[in-house]
């Protein structure tokens, strides 16, 4: 603040002189001087309140520790005052000081109220502290495995389709050449939907999507179907009531058993490593003929035998086979002209095998200590 901005009676330099030098010799003139100071402070403060830097200057001018007006008044006016004026100077100074401090504090609170944060937070905010780390989730191991598996098939021209988890017995069984009372239904005992007008059930496999796809589109077909399936198994280390599958189906005019075997070998090498070998064991599914279980050399011991493959050197990958011509009859495909292969793999099983997970429940308990191992 410039001296000229004070009033005529009290100049800035006045604070450097004693009252005697200024000519104040009576309590009355001291009182008048303080009253004037009071007024001039109020004038200045009123104008400075809406200007940050002007306000800052004002605060410094009045309350600066060494050369602020209040300090100087104490040093130059109060301390050397003669006993006759001590009381008047002391009172004037105290009143002025209390007023100046009150106005400054009031303004400080006003500024604070304009900002959103409570003062406690702003004042105690330590920018040098590390921030709070919010954990972002990871994709679940099953999701990761799905993506891996689907990519392997997408790379050779399979497209991904999905279908309903609640199915009719026709799609889940009959159209897949599993008539009622067929023993193949035994291991597919499942959950029926209560109160449905026509029978509905939770699908026991993703194979119904073979039928739904062939019903909808003419050949050629090359699809993979990810999805949940349900079976009335008793939960244990390797079983739950729900698990994940990927169905595969390829149908065209010229698909041979060699295409089937080649696709299986390609898949095993992509999923388990380039040195992986495969073998087919005879099996039975009503909707494939011939049917096979696909085995691969163990990815842990490469076939020499270990705990993972139970010393056999082989691990079971999935069930598969050439599409049974009887199935084409249900979807109005010509069995004379068409051929194809199908497979159905258990995603949970493949994930557990590849990543060394031994207990199915671990996959679904959502325990972060488990999930974090598959970032
Ligand atoms: N759907 C059969 C199962 O869940 C697997 C499978 C699919 C077998 C396609 C052959 C062909 O057990």
Features:
375 residues, 41% helix, two-stranded antiparallel ribbon, alpha+beta, seven-stranded mixed β-sheet, disordered N terminus, binds phenylalanine
Description of the structure:
With 375 residues, this protein is α+β, with helices and mostly antiparallel strands. The protein contains 14 helices and nine strands. It has helices at residues 19-22, 27-48, 52-63, 69-78, 83-114, 119-123, 141-154, 169-172, 208-216, 257-272, 325-331, 347-355, 360-364, 368-371, and strands at 159-160, 166-167, 201-202, 221-230, 242-252, 278-285, 288-297, 314-323, 339-346. The strands form two sheets. A seven-stranded mixed sheet has the order 1-4-5-9-8-7-6, with helices on both faces. Helix 7 (141-154) crosses helix 12. The chain starts with 18 loop residues before the first helix and ends with a helix. Phenylalanine binds at residues 205, 207, 247, 285, 288, 319-321, 342-344.
Task: Please provide a brief summary of the model.
The protein has 375 residues and is an alpha+beta fold. The chain has helices spanning 19-22, 27-48, 52-63, 69-78, 83-114, 119-123, 141-154, 169-172, 208-216, 257-272, 325-331, 347-355, 360-364, 368-371; strands at residues 159-160, 166-167, 201-202, 221-230, 242-252, 278-285, 288-297, 314-323, 339-346.
Largest beta sheet: strand ordering:
1-4-5-9-8-7-6
Count, helices: 14
* Largest sheet: number of strands, sense, barrel closure: 7 strands, mixed
Strand content is 15-25%
Shape: rod-shaped
Q: Which ligands occur here?
A: phenylalanine
């Amino acid at each position: 603040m410039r001296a000229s901005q004070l009033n005529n009676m009290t100049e800035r330099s006045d604070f450097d002189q004693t009252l005697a030098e200024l000519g104040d010799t009576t309590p009355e003139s001291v009182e008048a001087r303080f009253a004037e100071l009071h007024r001039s402070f109020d004038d200045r403060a009123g104008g400075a309140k809406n200007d940050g830097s002007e306000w800052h200057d004002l605060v410094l001018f009045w309350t600066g520790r060494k050369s602020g007006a209040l300090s100087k008044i104490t040093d130059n006016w109060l301390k050397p005052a003669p006993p006759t004026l001590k009381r008047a100077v002391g009172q004037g100074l105290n009143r002025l000081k209390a007023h100046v401090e009150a106005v400054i504090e009031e303004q400080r609170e006003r500024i604070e109220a304009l900002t959103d944060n409570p003062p406690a937070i702003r004042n105690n905010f330590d920018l040098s502290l590390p921030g709070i780390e919010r954990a972002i989730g990871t994709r679940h191991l099953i999701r990761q495995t799905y993506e891996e598996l689907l990519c392997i098939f997408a790379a050779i021209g399979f497209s991904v389709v999905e279908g309903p988890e609640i199915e009719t017995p026709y799609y889940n069984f009959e159209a897949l050449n599993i008539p009622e009372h067929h023993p193949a239904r035994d291991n597919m005992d499942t959950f029926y939907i209560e109160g449905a007008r026509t029978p509905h059930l939770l699908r026991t496999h993703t194979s119904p999507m073979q039928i739904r796809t062939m019903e909808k589109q003419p050949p050629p077909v090359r699809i993979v179907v990810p999805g949940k399936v349900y079976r009335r198994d008793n939960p244990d280390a390797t079983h739950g009531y729900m698990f994940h599958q990927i169905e595969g189906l390829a149908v065209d005019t010229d698909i041979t058993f060699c295409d089937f075997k080649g696709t299986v070998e390609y898949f095993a090498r992509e999923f388990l490593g380039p040195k992986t070998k495969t073998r087919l064991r005879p099996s039975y599914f009503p909707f494939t003929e011939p049917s096979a279980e696909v085995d691969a050399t163990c990815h842990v011991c490469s076939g020499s035998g270990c705990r993972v493959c139970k010393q056999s050197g082989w691990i079971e990958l999935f069930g598969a086979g050439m599409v049974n011509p009887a199935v084409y009859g249900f979807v109005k495909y010509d069995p004379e002209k068409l051929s194809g292969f199908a497979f159905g793999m258990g995603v949970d099983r493949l994930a557990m095998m590849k990543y060394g997970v031994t207990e199915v429940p671990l996959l679904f308990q959502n325990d972060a200590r488990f999930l974090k191992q598959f970032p």
